[in-house]
Amino acid sequence: MTKELILSEIKRVGAVDGKSLGHARFSKKSGIQKTDWYGKYWVRWSDALREAGLSANEFNKAYPEEYVIEKLISLIRELGYYPVTGEIRIKAREDKSFPAHTVFSRVGNKQTLIKKLIAFCDNKCEYSDIVQICSALQLPDILKREKENDLIIGAVYLIKSGKFYKIGRSNSIARRQYEMSIQLPETIKVIHSINTDDPVGIEAYWHNRFNNKRKNGEWFELDQNDVKAFKRRKFM
């Protein structure tokens, strides 16, 4: 496999696609493997592209962290909850402007990304929905220690739909919010969540406390003082 042949194929495939290619995609279209050029003619794929007269692939450039955060925000709003890696992969395949899942991994793990999302959105009213979703997923240090000790970790949440409030428990409030949103006719909003190592007991506590305001099942008609009392608790 000569250098000249590889360069001519890079130009041919690049012209057909209208843009420079990553080496994996180039290999798929040309049949030329990385082993045919790596360490023989070039060390970096971008060097091969430049020698062929093409610009380095955009995917080889680092995304600004703010851009990555904004793209993640857009996907969270599209889904209504924090995405799993598979959903990020699908989005990247469907939308070429969306970063690959590896880009998000370089920014940090899930908890690090959540912290950065909250910091980016904090005190910006237009991002209040993102703060609510991410706050429900954020584990305080005490919960991390409990999780390491294999204790049951969860949260008791307060969700509003219309004029009524639901008090329930879940180990993934974002997922529970999504499940409820497709079942209820009115928009739902997570008001607050209380992290706990005893979700069953804490849920029962709040159900009993507001029992005289119960309407049906886990739904209650609460006033602002009731809501404030619930929101004062961060961990129980």
- Main structural class: alpha+beta
Termini distance?
A: 67 Å
Domain count: 3
Unreliable sequence segments: 141-148
Oligomer: single chain
How large a portion of the residues is in β-strands, by DSSP E?
5-15%
Rounded to the nearest angstrom, the radius of gyration is 25 Å
Listing every helix as H and every strand as E from the N terminus to the C terminus, the arrangement reads HHHHHHHHHEEHEHEEH
Number of continuous helical runs? 12
Largest sheet: 5 strands, antiparallel
Report the principal-axis shape: elongated
Strand order of the largest sheet: 3-1-2-5-4
Mean residue pLDDT: 79
Helix share bin: 40-55%
What is the number of E strands? 5
